Amino acid sequence: MPKYEYQIIHQLANRVEHLTRQLNSAVRDGWDPVSMTGDEHVYVLLRRPYQEESASAQSGQAAPPAE
């Protein structure tokens, strides 16, 4: 079964242009939007196949893979 790493983008709903830029940048980096929720605050759940080197570079340490 493939393993994924996850990321959440949070943005105020009235900042749609900024959220769009964040999403486009994340997609270019290999992230896929999985779900979105919110009213005044928007939360977008992203995932991509787990890559040990990207997880350690992003957080400073290796994150455990999700199944």
Q: What characterizes the major β-sheet?
A: 3 strands, antiparallel
Strand and helix order: EHEEH
Fraction of residues in helix: 25-40%
Total DSSP helices: 2
Count of DSSP strands? 3
Helix vs. strand class = alpha+beta
Arithmetic mean pLDDT: 86
Q: What percent of residues are in strands?
A: 35-45%
Summarize this structure briefly.
With 67 residues, the chain is α+β, with helices and mostly antiparallel strands. The protein is 31% helix and 37% strand.
Give a structural overview.
The protein is α+β, with helices and mostly antiparallel strands and 67 residues long. It has one domain. It is 31% helix and 37% strand. The chain contains two helices and three strands. It has a three-stranded antiparallel β-sheet, with helices on one face. β2 (32-38) and β3 (41-49) form a beta hairpin. The longest helix is centred in the first third of the chain and has 13 residues, at 16-28. The protein is elongated and about 35 Å long.
Q: How does the SSE layout of this entry go?
A:
Layout (H helix, E strand, L loop, with lengths): L3 E9 L3 H13 L3 E7 L2 E9 L2 H8 L8
Antiparallel strand pairs: 1-3, 2-3
Summary tags:
three-stranded antiparallel β-sheet, single chain, 67 residues
